[in-house]
C-alpha cells in the first residue's frame, strides 16, 4: 500500500492491477498461479516416467524376460537390450576407474598443497572444461584421440581401429574430471582447519594429514562426487556415441568396440517408428537409463545427508 | 592461524628429503602436482586443436551465409540463428515456470511436503540423461502433440530443452531467494505491503543478479546440448521463419560435419565448434559478472 497525498484520487497511486482485483484478490490469484507452477515442475519427472513406462510396456509384455537377452537384431525381431547395458557398464566403469583417482588427487593438490597463485588459474581451467559442450569433446576424441590410440596400440595388439571401450572411457573421464575435482575439493575445504592443526600437532607430516585426516573427513563429499559422475557417465551421449564404434558385440577387453544405451537411442529412435515392438524395445532402453540415473541421484543425496550428519556429530 | 600457516610452509617446498617420511611427503607433493597438471592437458589439447584446425575457416561468410551443398559450401547462419531461437523459446517457457515455483516454495509454502516434493523432483530431473529428454520429447512433443507442435519443429525442440532448464533455474533461484535476509521482508510487510508486492518489489529485486546467474548457467548448459535435439527439431538449411518450421542447431551441425567423410566439411566442424564455444563462454562470462554483482550488493548491505 502506497502512501497518498491527502485529496489525491485513488487511481493516481494505486497500480492498475490493484484497481482491477484489489490487493487481496491479487495476492490470492498470484499465489494460486505460483502453486500451479510448482505442481507443474514436479509433474515433469512423473510425466517422463509414466510416458516411458507406457511406451516400454509392450516390449516387456511381448518379450518377457527376453528383453534382457543378449542379441539385438531388429531385422529378425530380436530385441535383447543386455548388449547395450553391458556396453554402458564397461565404458562407464572404466571411465570412473580413470577419473576418480586422478580427480581426487587433483582436488587434494588444489585444496592442500596448491599455492594460491596457481589455484585460481587451475580452478578457472576446470570451470572452462566443464563449460565445453560434449559435442566438442566428441569431435576432438573422434579426430585426435582415436587416431592417437590407433597408432599407439596397433603395433602391440595387431589390428586396432582406435574406436572402442578405451576411447569412450578416456573421453568420458576427461568430461567427468571437472565435476569430480570441483565437488571433492569443496568437500575437502569443508574439513575444519582445527582437525588439520590437531594432526600437525601430533607430528603428522603434510601428506599424512592430507591422506588420513582430510581425505577421510571429506569421504562423504567424495562419495557424492563419484555417484553424481557415475550418473553422468551413464547418461552421456554424444562423445561416447562418436568414439565407441557402435558395434553390437559384448565387449571382453578394453580394445573391443561396443554399443552403449545412449547411442542406441540416439542412432535408432527415428527409424523405429514403423515397428511398434522395435520402438517399444528402444523405449525400454530409455526407461532403464532413466531408472539408473534416478537411482544414482537418490544415492548421492543419501550420501550427502550421511556426510552432513557426520559433520554435525563432529562439531 | 598465522603460525600454523608458517609451519605448513616450512614443511612444503622442494628441500631435499632427510628421512623416509620426508621423502614420502615430498613424493606425494610432486605426484599430486603432476596429476593436477595432467588434468589440464586435455583442455589445452582441445583448444589447440580447435584453433589450429578451425581458425582458417572462421571467415565472415561462415556467419553470414546459410549451409549449402551438405556443408561443402556456405556457412552456418541457419544453425546460429536456430540455436539462438531454440534457447530463447526454451527460456521463455522454462523461466516463468521455474522461477514461479521457486518463489512459491520459498516465499509462500511452509516447510513441508510440497516443498520437499518440488526440490526432490528437480534434483532427480537434473540427473536425467539428456538423451532421455530427447526420447521423451520425441514421443510427447513430436508425436502425441503433433497437431499443436507440428511434429519435429522449432517448438518441439525448444519445449524439450525447456524441461532441461527447469532444475537448474529452480534450484539456483531457491538458493538466492533464501539468501535474502528475512529483515528485508519483515520491513516491507511491516509497512503494510502484501506478500505479493513484497516478493516482487523487495525480495526478487534484492536477489535479481543471483537469479540471473542461475538463468545464464542454465542457458550455457542447454546451448551445447545435442542429444535432446537429434529427433525433435528436424533439419532446416535455412533459418526458420516460424516456430512450426524445422530448425538446425549448432551442436547438431557440428555432429553432422564431424561424421561427414569429406575433410573440407570436417574442417568446418572445428570452425563451428569455435563459434559454439565462444557463444557458451560469453554466456558463462556474463554469469560470472552477474554473480560478482551479487557480492557487491551484499557488501553494500
CATH architecture of chain A: Orthogonal Bundle
Radius of gyration of chain A: 26 Å
**Structure summary, number of beta strands of chain A:** 2
What do we call the CATH homologous superfamily of the largest domain in chain B? MetI-like
CATH class of chain A: Mainly Alpha
- CATH homolog superfamily of chain A: MetI-like
| Spatial order of strands in the largest sheet of chain B | 1-2
What is the arithmetic mean of pLDDT of chain B? 88
Which term fits the overall shape of chain A? globular
**Proportion of β residues of chain B?**
under 5%
Number of helices of chain A: 13
Distance between the termini of chain B: 29 Å
Q: Give the number of domains of chain A.
A: 1
Measured distance between first and last alpha carbons of chain A: 46 Å
Helix content of chain A: over 70%
Query: Spans of chain A with pLDDT under 50 lasting ≥5 residues?
Result: none
> Largest sheet of chain B, if any?
2 strands, antiparallel
Largest interface chains and counts: A-B, 90 and 92 residues
**Number of discrete helical segments of chain B:** 13
Low-confidence stretches of chain B: 1-12
Major sheet characteristics of chain A: 2 strands, antiparallel
Overall description:
The complex is a heterodimer of chains A (315) and B (301). In chain A, helix 3 (23-63) packs across helix 13 (276-314) and helix 7 (165-190) runs antiparallel to helix 10. Chain A has one domain (66-314): Orthogonal Bundle (MetI-like fold). Chain A has 13 helices and two strands, in the order H-H-H-E-E-H-H-H-H-H-H-H-H-H-H. Helix content of chain A is 76%, strand content 1%. In chain A, strands 1-2 form a two-stranded antiparallel sheet. With 301 residues, chain B is an all-alpha fold. Chain B folds into two domains: 2-40, no CATH class; 60-300, MetI-like (MetI-like fold), CATH 1.10.3720. In chain B, helix 5 crosses helix 8 (154-179) and helix 8 (154-179) packs antiparallel against helix 11. The two termini of chain B are 29 Å apart. Chains A and B meet through helix 3, helix 4, helix 5, helix 6 and helix 7 of A and helix 1, helix 2, helix 4, helix 5 and helix 6 of B.
Amino acid at each position: 500500500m502506497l502512501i497518498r497525498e491527502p485529496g489525491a484520487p485513488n487511481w493516481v497511486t494505486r497500480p492498475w492491477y490493484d484497481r482491477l482485483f484489489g490487493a487481496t484478490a491479487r495476492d490470492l490469484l498470484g499465489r494460486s498461479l505460483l502453486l500451479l507452477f510448482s505442481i507443474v515442475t514436479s509433474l515433469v519427472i512423473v510425466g517422463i516416467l509414466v510416458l516411458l513406462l507406457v511406451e516400454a510396456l509392450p516390449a516387456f509384455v511381448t518379450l518377457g524376460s527376453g528383453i534382457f537377452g543378449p542379441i539385438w537384431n531388429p531385422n529378425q525381431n530380436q530385441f535383447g537390450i543386455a548388449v547395450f547395458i553391458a556396453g554402458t557398464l564397461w565404458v562407464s566403469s572404466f571411465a570412473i576407474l580413470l577419473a576418480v583417482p586422478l580427480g581426487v588427487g587433483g582436488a587434494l593438490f588444489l585444496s592442500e598443497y596448491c599455492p594460491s597463485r596457481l589455484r585460481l588459474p587451475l580452478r578457472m581451467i576446470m570451470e572452462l572444461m566443464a563449460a565445453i559442450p560434449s559435442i566438442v569433446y566428441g569431435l576432438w576424441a573422434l579426430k585426435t584421440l582415436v587416431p592417437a590410440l590407433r597408432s599407439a596400440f596397433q603395433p602391440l595388439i595387431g589390428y586396432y581401429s582406435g574406436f572402442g571401450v578405451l576411447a569412450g572411457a578416456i573421453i568420458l573421464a576427461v568430461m567427468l574430471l571437472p565435476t569430480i575435482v570441483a565437488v571433492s575439493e569443496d568437500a575437502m575445504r569443508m574439513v575444519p582447519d582445527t582437525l588439520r592443526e590437531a594432526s600437525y600437532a601430533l607430528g603428522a607430516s603434510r601428506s599424512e594429514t592430507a591422506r588420513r585426516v582430510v581425505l577421510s573427513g571429506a569421504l562423504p563429499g567424495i562419495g557424492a562426487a563419484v555417484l553424481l559422475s557415475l550418473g553422468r557417465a551413464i547418461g552421456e551421449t554424444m562423445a561416447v556415441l562418436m568414439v565407441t564404434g557402435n558395434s553390437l558385440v559384448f565387449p571382453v577387453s578394453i580394445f573391443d568396440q561396443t554399443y552403449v544405451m545412449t547411442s542406441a537411442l540416439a542412432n535408432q529412435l527415428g527409424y523405429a517408428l514403423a515397428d511398434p515392438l522395435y520402438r517399444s524395445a528402444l523405449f525400454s532402453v530409455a526407461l532403464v537409463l532413466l531408472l539408473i540415473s534416478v537411482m544414482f541421484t537418490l544415492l548421492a543425496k543419501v550420501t550427502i545427508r550421511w556426510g552432513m550428519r557426520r559433520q554435525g556429530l563432529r562439531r | 592461524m598465522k603460525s600454523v600457516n608458517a609451519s605448513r610452509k616450512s614443511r612444503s617446498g622442494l628441500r631435499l628429503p632427510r628421512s623416509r617420511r620426508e621423502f614420502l611427503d615430498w613424493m606425494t607433493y610432486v605426484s599430486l602436482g603432476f596429476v593436477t597438471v595432467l588434468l589440464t592437458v586435455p583442455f589445452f589439447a582441445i583448444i589447440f586443436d580447435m584453433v589450429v584446425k578451425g581458425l582458417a575457416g572462421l571467415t565472415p561468410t561462415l556467419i553470414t551465409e546459410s549451409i549449402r551443398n551438405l556443408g561443402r559450401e556456405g556457412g552456418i547462419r541457419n544453425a546460429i540463428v536456430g540455436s539462438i531461437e531454440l534457447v530463447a523459446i526454451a527460456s521463455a517457457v522454462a523461466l516463468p515456470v521455474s522461477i514461479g515455483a521457486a518463489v512459491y516454495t520459498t516465499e509462500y509454502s511452509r516447510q513441508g511436503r510440497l516443498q520437499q516434493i518440488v526440490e526432490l523432483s528437480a534434483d532427480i530431473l537434473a540427473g536425467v540423461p539428456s538423451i532421455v529428454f530427447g526420447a521423451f520429447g520425441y514421443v510427447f512433443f513430436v508425436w502425441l502433440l503433433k497437431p499443436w507442435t507440428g511434429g519435429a519443429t522449432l517448438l518441439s525442440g525448444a519445449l524439450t530443452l525447456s524441461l532441461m532448464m527447469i532444475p537448474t533455474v529452480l534450484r539456483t533461484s531457491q538458493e538466492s531467494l533464501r539468501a535474502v535476509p528475512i529483515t528485508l521482508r519483515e520491513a516491507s510487510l511491516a509497512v503494510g505491503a502484501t506478500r505479493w508486492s513484497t516478493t516482487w518489489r523487495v525480495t526478487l529485486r534484492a536477489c535479481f543478479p543471483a537469479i540471473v546467474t542461475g538463468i545464464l548457467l542454465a542457458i550455457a548448459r542447454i546451448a551445447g546440448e545435442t542429444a535432446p535435439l537429434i529427433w525433435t527439431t528436424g533439419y532446416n538449411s535455412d533459418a526458420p521463419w516460424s516456430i512450426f518450421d524445422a530448425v538446425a542447431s549448432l551442436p547438431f551441425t557440428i555432429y553432422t560435419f564431424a561424421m561427414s567423410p569429406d575433410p573440407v566439411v570436417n574442417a568446418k566442424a572445428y570452425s563451428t565448434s569455435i563459434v559454439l564455444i565462444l557463444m557458451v563462454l560469453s554466456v558463462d562470462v556474463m554469469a560470472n559478472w552477474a554473480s560478482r554483482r551479487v557480492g557487491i550488493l551484499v557488501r553494500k548491505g
